[in-house]
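for the record, two folds in this file. i put them one after another cuz i was lazy. first one right below, seq on top, structure tokens after. the second one comes after a little note so u can tell where it starts
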Amino acid sequence: MLIPKNNANLMRTKILIKLAESYLTDKFADADRIPLELRPKETQPSRCCVYKDRAVLKYRCMAGLGHCPEEETDELKTLREYGNEALDRRQAPKNKLSVIDIACSACIKSQYVITDVCRGCFAQPCRLNCPKEAISIVNGRARIDPDKCVNCGKCFEVCPYHSVVKIPVPCEEACPVGAITKDEFGKEHIDTEKCISCGKCLASCPFGAIVERSQMIDVMREIKETDKKVVAMLAPAVLGQFPGSVNSLVCALKKFGFSDVMEVAVGADITTQKEAAEFIERMEEGAKFMTTSCCPAYYRAAQVHIPEIKPYVSDTKTPMYYTAELVKKSDPACIAVFVGPCLAKRAEAEYDPNVDYVLTFEELGAMLVASGINVDECAEEPFGLVSHKEGRQFPVTGGVAGAVASLVGDKVEIRPEKIDGLTKENIKLLKRYAAKGSENNMLEVMCCEGGCVSGPGCIALSKKAARAVDSYAATGEPLTFETKIGEK
């Protein structure tokens, strides 16, 4: 999933930094000034007026404090009060994506439109290929009858001048499972029963109307106000996300207050060993294929939207699971914090007793900026447990299947295929594979195109991050079935 730099995403980062600064400075005493500081009266408003901009910013701040704007009804409650409630709670906010009603622009229904680029050509492929005869030629130009059009896109595909454009509803277009739809007023709503927490709608909304419930303040409170050891578990996609080396980041996190920093690629090594063994067993038992993925959004999609694929989904746990297991085995009383590129990991963590909180790279970056810690100025500090080549390559498309294939070797034949992105089309493809089988017996499913380095919680360009992952993986020692994981 390509997440271009835009004002909506930049504002989300600014809000997180302001909230972190407000907590570190005076425990939210000045939190209610954040919307005013981010949208001063003399600036050009983004909406009808600066006051509506500030109202939207308040709701976005509420989400940054771990609250759900859709569930809050007291308009007079201050951000300081919401911040104090965040400091009082002792359980992580439940994973939920929601829409800020007043921020939603109620985009017009998705449709195809013929522009003035139309030449009214003699061929008329748009008219002849329209299955509903919705296109006619008026005054030498093609016109679409909206009452007949079914948005099939045939005219868009065949126009030689590219004069047909699609006007999408960005969030609906991005959602692969149809979990976000309009109400009678044109406002968008997310069906939590259908939602797979992939975050594609959040990343695509041009108005910043979709928000998640952050756990950033909870983690900061655990570090700054309790005596518990707090361990950061860094996902392999962290490579390239911050300036300096990954070992400089280890030093920066300890400087912030984390007791220890664990490389989740170590857990990925365990996943590789167990999944390779599982694949060999399944193939020997005659299974048609097996899907591999570390993505909770895919697991949720398989459970709710592609039930026919469930028998082929690997039973092996994710790298986060095995890493947290190692962390809690070392110190059962510690606080385990997964740091990664993914919103769906919060949903996975709700079912994992060993994971206490989940942060995105964006949230971690906001914490470091607010505290004045520059990663590239920190000394390098090694991880306590060192990962292997196979586990390090997990966050790029093909990395998981490649890691498993390297261990399977010639024990059984392995024919991998990459399902690069959980889109509407690829969901149909998985349904077809479940019904009719596939020429390949190992299907790697990545929810985000390009892999976890393209996740909605990333702060670096995916190609840059992928290159950093490849370079780091190349320095790792190879993994075998006999490698003992978790020993210092």
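(here's the note) second protein begins now
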Amino acid sequence: MQLLYDFIRRHPTGVDTFWAVVLFGFSVLWVIQVPVGVQARTAAGVIVLLLSLVVALRRRMPERMLVLAAVLGVVQLVLDIEVNPADFAMMVIIYTVAAHDGSRWASRLALLGGLSAATLAQVRWPMEEAGTGGRIFFTIVMSATFALAWVLGDSIRTRRAYFAQLEERATRLEKEREAQAKVAVAAERARIARELHDVVAHNVSVMVVQADGGAYVLDAAPDQAKQALETISTTGRQALAEMRRLLGVLRTGDARESGEYVPQPDVQQIEDLVEQVRIAGLTVDFKIEGTPRPLPSGVELTAYRIVQEALTNTRKHGGPEAGASVRLVYFDDGLGLLVEDDGRGAAHELYEDGGADGRGHGLIGMRERVGMVGGTLDTGPRPGGGFRISALLPLKPAL
């Protein structure tokens, strides 16, 4: 049965042609039996043939077949060719046009023709033996039959349009979900990239400075070289721990499920960060103004990463004699950060237009982090030389 159903769906015109031949066969029997002259019989045969053609081509050319059926109906009235089996094609074409997603004028014409067909037929060929009441009843029944065919076709057209709309909506929602998933993936990649940059850039920078210093004093001051190696070891372990946490998030989607959980840095650890940088050889003046208090985790992490990146940039670009200062200011509605150095300062292209030649990602990451918590960031050369990074992080994100 499934094979037959699939064949019918693939060859609708062939199926319609089969039923047209069946209708033509029954109609020819009527033509042969009707007691009329040769000319009338020939005209009836032509009309029967054309009405059968209407059935055969109803789905390929519904509007044209409707017009042809209407013309044939008028010709029947004019030539006095009574109602015959081939007139069933008129009901079929009315249903087809109503179900077709075509011009609405054709659907209205089909409804009007169906409602008037029975009345015109009774006027032209009245049923004398049925009486007035019987003729009225027959006319109403036939008109209702034609109307029912139109209603059924229009209902199928509406249902088809409804399902098409549902499919379109489902497709659109699927595309929107894919787009949202891509945006979420891009945002997660950017977040992880910022974390990796902050972790790798800072810790590797400390390790490089200590390695260079240790190599320089290896022979003259073995104790200092040993201390530098210990700092490199400690810094390397910290970097590995944080990278292990990030990789755990990538594998499991949740930092708590990773093999080794490392808490996110906060404002209280900035002092440890400053001390680590001092050990690495950079002079840093650190001050806290206002009353320290707990802050939202996003603000705490952002503040820590800004200070970390700023001090890393000072070591990279400030020169060997550079010094830095870090100020944390607690306001009623937020946290202020000011990191300055008196070194040579970063090259212009590193803080303008997002960096150049793949550089300047640290400042880009700063702006992204500050933007995520609704804060403001100002970076650039400091009057008198050096570089300044100023940030204001609100306690509540901007609406």
